[in-house]
Amino acid sequence: MVEVVSLGVWDYVILGVVLLISAGIGVYFRFTGGKQKTAKEYLLADKNMSIIPVAFSLMASFMSAVTLLGVSSENYVYGFQFIVINLSYGLFTPIAAYIYLPVFFKLQATSAYEYLEKRFGKLSRLTASLCYSFQMILYMGIVLYAPALALGALTGISKYAAILTVGLVCTFYSTIGGMKAVLMTDVFQSLLMFASVFCIIIYAGIDVGGLQEIWDIAEKGGRTDLLNFDPDPTVRHTWFTLIIGGGITFLTLYGVNQTQVQRYLTLKDLKSAQTALWVQWPILSALSLSTSFSGLAIYSRFYNCDPVAAGKIELNDQLMPYFVIDSMGHISGLTGLFVAGLASAALSTVSATINSLAAVTMEDYFKPIYKKLYNTDLKETKLAIFSKIAALCYGFICLGVAFLAENFGGVLQSSLTIFGVVGGPLLGFFSLGMFTTRANQKGSLTALLLGLSLALWAGFGLPRPSPPKLPVSIDGCGQELDGVSFLNQTSFNTRQDEEINYLWLYRISYLYNGVFGLLSVFIAGYILSWISDLIWGKEKLDHDPNLFITPIRRKLKKQLRKNVVT
After folding, report:
1. What is the pLDDT of residues 483-496, one digit of tens each?
2. Is 250 a domain residue?
3. Is the Cβ–Cβ distance between 400 and 145 less than 8 Å?
4. CB 237 within 8 A of CB 509
5. How far apart are CA 51 and CA 419, in angstroms?
6. Cα(322)–Cα(304) distance, rounded to whole angstroms?
7. Does the bond joining 425 to the residue before it have cis omega, within 30 degrees of 0?
8. Is 167 part of a structural domain of the chain?
9. Cα separation of 346 and 351, whole Å?
10. CB-based contacts of 287, cutoff 8 Å, min separation 6
11. For a 10 Å CB count at each end of the chain, is N or C smaller?
């Protein structure tokens, strides 16, 4: 039977204050500065933001409630191996900063997908922006659903009330305050996320006798193995899957994703944007590592009485809130602080996505249609108004998807799978344009559709094997079980999977979805472009040097100078 605990008065006070502060920041930026009357201010914060808030926002845009709940349960259930992914963030940061970012900064377009129109054509831009919209709408649903799932089951707060409260507050300040409000609330909300995680680690350390004792308990439970170097792509987490797969996932988010590109462009120059990207890496890794260790801290309390096996909670994603309520619920206000941190994690990500989707809608869908109908460009003031309407609409769409998200499975793997199956092919599409002069629209667009189909098949095809979980125990539960029987999950999964002959593609680690999508689009796009040139002749492409990475750009500029001389 799942235990339900009501929040106290101070818990609600703290949660209410956090939501009011977030909404208040939106109100403040609505009535200060340019009052969000132009699209440049509303979508790009007038390009005068400082590095630190942008760095925090870059981190918070994708370190959501999914991270707090999913990463902690990941380390509890599967072990500490997941922290290796933080190395990939550092290894791939220079690729995003010095290869992809300069191209977008030279373009200075609100929508990242304008690049694809300049490089290939309008159809490429429209297709890619639609893929992005689909990807981020799904992700927003998971981000809103994750805290509602956990809190609704454990605190007596209605799951639907939690979704509506967080979603409406987020939609409110994102709509009226624009990008400035989103960036500044991200800083405030990031600090609350850190506070929530540190509370768990500190309390658990005091409870069991220190951080070393937490590690020792986890080691005895087989959860501290960090040396899995198995190159087999079907092994869920190894150094290869986490660094290669995690690194490509990082590039799909921080290299070519509209949400992050838009944040880079709120800074005054390329050097500032690159600095912000480097600054966010230690912030990102600090939250990821501390959240991972919080999973071991939670295990130190439940190592001999697993709440899922004992029937106290239904899902592993509820482990963190259950620990807070079970361990710290008697401390007035502390549960409220955790709930506020969880809500903040959702707010920061959803607000970032709402604003970016509004930008894509205006730049890629609405403005081209308006210009075609009226043969004139939309005025800045009207564009700002329509952007706010779009943000409001996406807020409500996000709420609708959140109510459907319970069908998506575990929150961490679901979100990373979505990033991989859509982000990988889009990364391949952008890379084709930036890294080659051969690629054309026919070949590249065909490859994108092919890569998306294959990646979606690989990511969501069924049936697929369940990942083997580390064993848990209920020996210490005593009289609390009421007849609940213990089942060794690892041996059960192994026996079950031996009975089914799974397709090899479904057994590949979910972290390779992005790699698979990237390679399939890049290789197929290059070959198909070459074939289309042979059949239909070369497309007349404007090889603007600024649309390519630095080595190719220099080569093209040299050729242009030579042509001018001759």
Report:
1. 454 444 444 444 44
2. yes
3. no
4. yes
5. 26
6. 16
7. no
8. yes
9. 8
10. 59, 63, 67, 190, 193, 194, 197
11. C
